[in-house]
Write a structure and sequence with these properties.
462 residues; alpha/beta; SH3 type barrels; Rossmann fold; 3 domains; eight-stranded mixed β-sheet; 13 helices; 23% strand; globular; binds aspartic acid
Length: 462
């Protein structure tokens, strides 16, 4: 691919600086500044960018802007024009292979480096996918559809409902599995809401993302895609799952139940962890190995239940010491119908907040308690304060994760105005969001890489 020109997007002093040291876009350079030396590749800039900064992709994969006024010297060490555009190839059709549908919503997994701007942008087409991960064709006949192209912080009720409806349509059409490409940041929120909005699925619904975009050597995109497509095509686990790296190496992926999973690290590829339980299975390119047996099995019918009713006026309040009641009062005044509190310890907030909880009850606002510790149960009978809060109408959510309780409360309030009915829905698990007890070895799984976990996992690895 030829670049448009050698200085694409550069103007003014940034352009002058590059020219002075004979550096072009895509040049590998070492930039000397008063604060140190930076090694990387010059990226093009967008037409709207300022004229003061040179943007380079560091060897680590991160992009930084260096003010041209700070540049003392630039040494050009090489140049390799970027070939970031993924070649499109037609996905081959094999009548003996299962049909899998990949629904894209955006995120890093659907992104590539845009050679025009140097930014990571969402890009998604079946041909591009096959062009970049041809192994997918060994597993299934993959059809793709881009539902949205957003980073996952922008997912909301409209996209959750649209995704649930799209899943329903595909199941009715008879696909053997569904993969949802999604940004990792809020993948656990979407996994939770899909677990409630899409029930009784006869096929696997596998959410997948990547922590590093596919233009980076350490990208997890290809392997995660292979693992998730394999799970959708071949596994007998008919649940909403999250499929991402297990350990930090690319040894195997883990399949997490959609209601018990959480993103736990901002940058590791092994960021997703099952909380308060153990993952459902391990997946490698060769096989899928269940770690437990209590999952919903694949069926041959198309009888899925899609229920997308959702109340948007719900929020999470993360309790912090010295919180004032005004936070909750303002939610009540703004018409919120449900509040999930992530309390300290066994589920606590300070006394000053009680007045707002009392008001919430009077105004018919549903208030549910979860724990910030993530592991373990809300227990409001242990201290007087817990009992007092229950008298004020706060409902303990057992070991439901705060984000899951938030999604479920929106869904439950969508089903009924009657808070007793809502309570019944909240406390009746749909799929593992409340469990009777947490397994003792579940806690260790979170700590991935320590000897006990390796020993546990090795029992399943042949
Ligand atoms: N910010 C991105 C997102 O959640 C990160 C990712 O995809 O991993 O959409």
């Amino acid at each position: 691919m030829a670049v448009d020109n050698d200085y694409k997007g550069y103007r003014g002093e940034a352009l002058t600086t590059l020219q002075k040291f004979s550096a072009l876009i895509w040049s590998d350079i070492e930039v000397l500044t008063a604060d140190g030396t930076y090694k990387g590749r010059v990226l093009p800039r967008s037409e709207t960018a300022d004229d003061k900064h040179i943007v380079i992709k560091l060897v680590s994969g991160y992009n930084i802007g260096i003010a041209s006024s700070r540049v003392l010297d630039i040494k050009v060490t090489g140049r390799k024009e970027a070939h970031y555009k993924i070649p499109e190839k037609e996905f081959p059709y094999d009548p003996r292979k299962p049909r899998v549908k990949l629904l894209g919503t955006g995120g890093t997994i659907a992104s590539r480096l845009d050679y025009r701007t140097g930014a990571v942008i969402p890009a998604f087409s079946p041909g591009e996918l096959y062009g970049s991960v041809p192994e997918l064709a060994d597993i299934c006949n993959l059809e793709t559809e881009k539902l949205y192209g957003v980073f996952s912080e922008n997912m909301g009720p409209e996209q959750w409902i649209g995704t649930a409806e799209a899943i329903g349509k595909e199941i009715e059409k008879g696909v053997q599995g569904i993969v949802i490409g999604h940004g990792t940041d809020t993948m656990h929120h979407t996994a939770a809401i899909l677990s409630f909005m899409v029930q009784n699925s006869p096929v696997p619904i596998v959410m997948v993302g990547s922590q590093r975009s596919s233009d980076r050597p350490s990208s997890d995109a290809a392997l995660n895609l292979m693992h998730s497509v394999k799970t959708a095509a071949e596994s007998d686990i008919a649940e909403v799952l999250v499929c991402m790296f297990g350990p930090t190496s690319d040894d195997y992926g883990l399949l997490h139940r959609g209601t018990r999973v959480r993103k736990m690290h901002s940058s590791y590829r092994s960021t997703f962890r099952t909380i308060g339980d153990i993952p459902i299975a391990m997946v490698s390119r060769e096989k899928i190995t269940p770690l437990r047996q209590d999952y919903k099995r694949r069926r041959r019918d198309n009888n899925v239940i899609i229920n997308t009713a959702f109340e948007e006026k719900v929020g999470i309040v993360y309790y912090y010491p010295n919180m004032k009641p005004d936070i909750i009062d303002s939610m009540i005044d703004n018409g919120y119908r449900g509040i999930v509190i992530a309390g300290t310890g066994l589920g606590h907030v300070n006394k000053p907040v009680y007045s707002a909880l009392k008001r919430a009850k009077e105004k018919n606002v549903a208030v549910y308690m979860t724990v910030q510790t993530l592991w373990g149960y809300v227990q409001m009978y242990v201290y007087d304060t817990g009992r007092d809060m229950m008298e004020l109408g706060v409902v303990p959510c057992a070991n439901m994760l705060p984000e899951v309780a938030y999604m479920k409360l929106g869904w439950a309030l969508g089903q009924s105005e009657d808070l007793e009915v809502v309570k019944k829905i909240m406390l009746t698990p749909v799929n593992g969001e409340i469990t009777e007890r947490e397994p003792s070895n579940g806690y260790l799984i979170l700590q991935g890489g320590i000897p006990e976990v390796e020993e546990f996992i090795s029992k399943y690895r042949k």
